[in-house]
C-alpha cells in the first residue's frame, strides 16, 4: 500500500494549504493565525502515510493518537465544539481523494489503501468524542449490553388494569444496575393525563404501590421531573419537605435522579433512581439515563398498545356476536341500494314482512317500486328522488306495500344517504317497518313506537357495519426474506401513493425504497413484529413522506396493520402490511360517527342518571302541544299515571300564581333565535291527603330548533326541591333571628354598660371609699369592660358573617410600634407575667389598619397569656420577608388538642373546662382575628406541640389589601 502513502507525503504541503483555506471562514476559528489552524496537521498526515505504508504498528498508532490529542486540546482551548473538530477530520477525508480525482484508474489507490485511510480518520473522530464527552468505547459497549437486557425482558403486552409491579420490576431493576444506583422506582400517568401513580419499585416489598399518587403539575420533585425535558438531580434527598417528597419512597437515599417518559410528545410516566451516598451526577450518567429511559418508553408504549389491541380484539368479537344476534332477531326488511349501479339487496327480514324471499325480490329497484300501492307510487318516487337530489342525509316515508298474498301492509321506510365528495348520492341503506297495527288502532301505540326506535337502531348498526366494510380500501404489500425487503405488491396503490416505480420498491430494503420515513419508527415496528410474531394494529399513525422522488415531505395519516406470516414450524416467514391512507374526508366521517356513538352513550347515561337522581322528564312538540311524560314526572306533579296528557292539561296542575312564570320561561326557551335554554322553579298541587299537596319543582330543559328555525322539540328534566325550599326558608328565618338577637345583645346593652363604666369611674374618684369598697368597684369595672369587649366581638362577628366582611382603613404603619404599644397595655392587666418582644427583620413597615392590627395582636397575646402556665414567658416576634411582614406569638404549655385544631378559627370555640371562668369569652376572638387578617390579604397559621409549644404566625402583605377573588 505504498501508492496512497506516496501521494500523501508528496502533497502534504498542498493538503495543508487547502485545509487552511477551507477552514479560514469558520466562526469557531475566527481570529486564529494560520499556524494555529494547522497545529499538528503536517506531522499527522505523515503519521497516517506511515500507517498506510507499513501497517498499524503500536508505535505508529501511539504517535498518531498523540498528534490527534494535541490537535483536539488546542481546539478545546479556543472554544471549538465537538462537531467543529469532527468536521475537520471529515474535511481531510474529502481533500485527500481529490489528489487522484483526474488520474487514470491504474494510478488511483486500491480499495485496501482507502479502507486503511478511512479507518484512521474514523478513529480520530472517535478520539474527539472521547475527549469532548468522556464517553469511551467501553461505555458504548456497556450501554448496548444493558439495552439488550431490556429488550430481552420486555413484555409483549400489558393490560392497563393488571398489577404491573411483577411485570415491570425486572426492567426497572436493569436500569438501576446500569446506573449503579441503590434503588429505582417507576411511576405511570393515569388516564386523566395528569396524576402519576407508583407501579413498581426495585425493593422487594414495594411499599405503597398503587396508592402513592402525585400531581404532575404540583411542586413535588416528581412533578418537577414530569415537566422537565432534561434529567433532574436532587443532591440533598435526606430530610425532604413533605411537598418535595410527595409520592416518593425515598428513605435512605441522599441523591435522587429523575427523568420523564415522553413517547410521542405526551407524558407516559416518570423514572426516579436513588443513590445512598451523596454524590454529583456526571453528564455521562445523565446521558445514559436518557438512553435507557427512551428505550424503556418504547418498550412500555409498545406493550401497552398491544394490551389495548388484545382488549380491542375481544371487544370486537363480542360486538360481532351481538350484531349477528341482533340481525337475526330483527323483523324489519333492511335494504341496501347502490345508486351507481342501481343494484338493490334485501335482508332476510323481507320474508317476515311481505312473504317474499330476498331472491324473489330481484337485484334492482323495479320490483320494489312495482309493489308500492298505485295511489302512492308517484308520491313516494317523487319524494325519494328529491331527497337524493338534495343535500339531506336521511329520507323517510310511509306507504302501502303489497305482500305475497296480494294484501297491502302499511310500512314506514327510512333510508340513510351516503354522498361522495361532490355531494352526489352513491349509496342508500334503509329499513322497512310494518306499521299496519299502529295505523289501524291507537291501542298499543307506545309499544309500536318502541319497536320503531329499535328498528332504527338496528338499521343504524347495520349501516355502520356496512360503512366500515365499504371504507376498507387498503394498500397491501408482503414483506418476505426477513423484516427488510419488499418482494410482492398486492396492488399498485402503494406506487401511486409513494410516487415510485416498481423497480424502486421491489426487492429493496424498506428504508431504501422509502428513505424519508427513517427515524419515524416504521423499521422498528417491522423488526418487532418479525421478532415476536405478534401482529400490530396502529391507529392513525402520522408519516412524513415525499409524494415523488426528491419532492417536499408531506404529513400523511395511515391506519397500519402488520400481520406476521407464519411457516408450518411456527416461525415468521414474512409480514403482510396493510396501510390505509386516512384522508381528511374519512377523518371527518370518523369524527362524525364517533360523535354519534358518544351521543348514544350519553343519552343512555342520562337515562340512568335520571333514574338514580329520582328525576322526571318530558318531551314536548311546541308547535302542536303534544307531550310525553315519564312515570316519575307524572308522580312528581300529580298527573294521571296513564293516558295522554297535553301541555295545556299539564299546566292546570301548576299553582295558579306560578303559571305566568312558567309560561314566560317556556316562551323564552322556544323563541326562534334564542339560546333554547329553560330553567324555572314552580309549585304544583297534587291530589291526596298526605299533607304534601303543594310541592316545589325545579325544571331544566332545552329547545331544539328545526332547519326552518322554528322550535321542533322541547325536552327537559324535573326534580322535587320541596325539602330544599323548606330548608332555605328555615335558614333565612334563623339568619334573621340571629341578626336580630345579636343586634339586641350588642346595641341595646351598650348604653347600660356605658352607664356602669361611667358610674364606676366616678366612684373611684371619691376619697371616702374604703379599701373593701374600692375592690368591689374595681371588680364591677373589670366585669363591665369585659362585657364591652364581648359586645365589640359580637359586632365584629355580625359584620364578618352577614355584613360582607370586616372593613379596614389602611395607612402607613410600623408593625414594631403597634406591637410595643399593645404589649405595654396588656402588661398592665398581667403585671406578674413576662412578655417579650423581638424584632428579627430590618423592614417591618407597610400599609395596614392600626386599630384592627392592634386588635389582632391583643387577642393573640391575651390568648397566649391565658393558656400558658404562670411563670413562663410569652414571646412576640416581628420580621419581614420580601413583600410581607411576619408576626409570631409563642407560648409554652399544654398543646392545643388535635381535635380542636381544624375548627380553632370557627366561631364559638373557647378554652377547656379547666380555664379560669373570669377570663372566658364568647369564643369569637380567633374567628375575628382570621377575618381581620383576611381583610388585609394575609394568612394566619398555628402549630402546637408539647415540645415546641404553640405559635400563631400572621403574614401580612405590605400593600394591605385583599387579593382579587379572596374570600
TrEMBL record:
Domain Histidine kinase: 744-960
Record's catalysed reaction(s): ATP + protein L-histidine = ADP + protein N-phospho-L-histidine
Keywords assigned: Kinase, Phosphoprotein, Transferase
Record-annotated PAC domain positions: 395-447, 539-594, 678-733
Gene3D superfamilies in alphabetical order: 1.10.287.130, 2.10.70.100, 3.30.450.40, Histidine kinase-like ATPase, C-terminal domain, PAS domain
Keyword ATP-binding: no
Top-level EC class: transferase
Annotated PAS domain residues: 319-391
One annotated GO molecular function: phosphorelay sensor kinase activity
InterPro entries to which the protein is assigned, alphabetical: GAF, GAF-like_dom_sf, HATPase_C_sf, HATPase_dom, His_kinase_dom, HisK_dim/P_dom, HisK_dim/P_sf, PAC
EC number(s) per entry: 2.7.13.3
Alphabetized PANTHER family for the sequence: PAC DOMAIN-CONTAINING PROTEIN (PTHR43304:SF1), PHYTOCHROME-LIKE PROTEIN CPH1 (PTHR43304)
Protein name: histidine kinase
The organism of origin for this protein: Corallococcus sicarius
Lineage per the UniProt record: Bacteria, Pseudomonadati, Myxococcota, Myxococcia, Myxococcales
